[in-house]
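Take a look at this chain, tokens included, and explain the fold to me:
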Amino acid sequence: MGIVLDHTIVPAHDKELSARFLARILGLSYDGPVSHFAPVRINDTLTLDYDNESEFESHHYAFKVDEAAFDDNFNRIREEGIPYGSGPRSLDDMTINYRRGGRGFYFPAVALMSLGNPA
């Protein structure tokens, strides 16, 4: 077996709220806390374990998704009125990018993410 990232701890001001938000936007489920973490299972090999912190640096989380999932995720961002942008320095220009043959966008919230399906 090669090296696979199993989980990472994501600092948040409110771990439960943050976990619920990410799960909702990505169309995943949040099943409640496990120990002192608020885990969101991203796929079969990765869990993001939210934990409360009062201070932390900005983080960047990037997800590749297929076209249908992109549309679903993007629609949820727009429906909730969350500002988004075409790049890490353009977080609120309300446009998407078309890099590497796919579509992508970024949004500042619980985590900074770009979603798309690069070719």
The first helix runs from residue 15 to 26. The first strand starts at residue 7 and ends at 12.
